[in-house]
Design goal:
Distance between the termini: 26 Å
Largest sheet: 16 strands, mixed
Strand content: 25-35%
Number of strands: 23
Order of helices and strands: HEHHHEEEEEEEEEEEEEEEEEHEHEEHEE
Radius of gyration: 26 Å
Shape: globular
Length: 383
């Protein structure tokens, strides 16, 4: 007999420590997922506009409706003609000349698109010389990361740069993760970086300047080794984050999805476009909204969870949940009804679970009908 699935509400008023073992048990059961009863009151139109800001190309698929004024002028101009053929239409209908036309089905809104990828974590190296400044792709996987200036595939969960030999103090390394994989990197100064899926981190093999600067595309969690004489700086999509010794998360998959979240210490976040800046305290994050830096309070459990290998969404819009799932599993995600953007979810799941288990957990909401055909996730309202 199939075990009955249970849902547990997460009390957001009481602090809950992330226990990986307990969360993993819940995630394997039902994903600890449920739908807020008040969710339908959320502003779907506002979520639609926000989605268009994240995916501007989606706006090209939306056809504008003619204005009421233009429609009125058209009807007025042809009013006589319409009246003249009205009787003929009645006769034709009575004779069965017309049948009820089929209404075309509205195409699904694509929330996320899969891409072809190798599926392996890669590391490339570059130096100031013209011959080696451009990253190259190696033709076969290698386990040895001791050889400088040769790009390799990494099959390890932890890359410790303190144990990797280099050919030049100016050498840089770039580690790139595909969708669905992450890696922990220990930099030469002892700073620990957890690099999320579909992300890239470029960093000096050895820090030799007065600033420890790295470049990020995607998302990474930083536990910075304290060194008050050498600030640690993360450059990500025109956003600069400076810290001395602290723990923070930087997310920058694109300009419309930039976020810096602080867990401990202090960081200075600078918008390099307009030179505005903010200083964050623990438990705060900053996002770009309308080109401005906006500070808000955060739930640290989400950051702790993804670093420990879990999805953790606390009252998060459905589109954000599905984009994150699409990115991790590298699958297409389609939405059949724009009104579904009004839903907000609580959802916890193990990232090691197959996508089929995630889909099964989402269906336990009872309000969503989620299907997966091997390459596409489709969300529609239950009938």
């Amino acid at each position: 007999m199939k075990t009955e699935k249970r849902h547990k509400d997460i009390d957001r008023e009481q602090p809950i420590d992330i226990n990986p073992d307990l969360i993993r048990d819940d995630a394997r059961d039902v994903g600890a997922a449920f739908m807020r009863e008040s969710a339908p009151r959320f502003d779907a139109d506002r979520e639609w506009q926000r989605f268009l800001s994240l995916r501007p190309e989606a706006a090209c698929d939306v056809q504008e409706k003619p204005s009421p004024r233009a429609t009125f002028r058209w009807l007025y101009a042809f009013g006589g003609a319409v009246a003249g053929i009205a009787a003929c239409l009645i006769i034709l209908f009575s004779l069965g000349f017309f049948t009820k036309p089929e209404i075309p089905q509205e195409e699904d809104l694509v929330l996320f698109a899969a891409v072809k990828q190798d599926g392996r974590i890669t590391m490339t190296s570059s130096t100031p010389t013209a011959e080696t400044s451009k990253p190259k792709t190696h033709t076969a996987p290698q386990k040895n990361v001791e050889t400088a200036n040769k790009p390799v595939y990494l099959d390890t969960k932890v890359l410790d740069m303190r144990k990797v030999s280099v050919t030049s103090v100016f050498e840089e390394r770039t580690v790139t993760t595909p969708r669905g994989k992450r890696i922990r990197i220990i930099l030469a100064d002892g700073t620990e970086v957890t690099l999320n899926g579909e992300s890239s981190l470029r960093f000096p093999a050895r820090f030799v300047s007065d600033r420890r600067t790295v470049n990020l595309e995607g998302e990474a969690y930083f536990a910075v080794a304290h060194d008050e004489n050498h600030p640690f700086i993360v450059i990500s999509d025109k956003i600069s984050t400076t810290a001395l010794g602290t723990e923070f998360d930087v997310r920058a998959y694109n300009r419309a999805d930039v976020r810096v979240s602080l867990l401990s210490g202090k960081v200075l976040v600078l918008d390099m476009t307009d030179k505005s800046s903010v200083t964050l305290d623990p438990g705060q994050d900053v996002t770009l909204k309308g080109g401005k830096l906006v500070v808000s309070n955060i739930n640290n459990r989400e950051l702790d969870a993804w670093r420990d290998g879990f999805f953790y969404f606390d009252n998060v819009p459905l589109i954000d949940v599905m984009i994150e799932l699409g990115r991790w599993y590298n699958v297409n995600v389609g939405l059949s009804d724009r009104t579904l953007m009004s839903y907000r979810l609580h959802f916890v799941a193990d990232r090691n679970e197959p996508v089929e288990s995630i889909v099964e957990s989402l269906n336990t909401f009872g309000t969503l009908n989620v299907t997966f055909d091997g390459t596409n996730i489709r969300i529609s309202p239950t009938k």
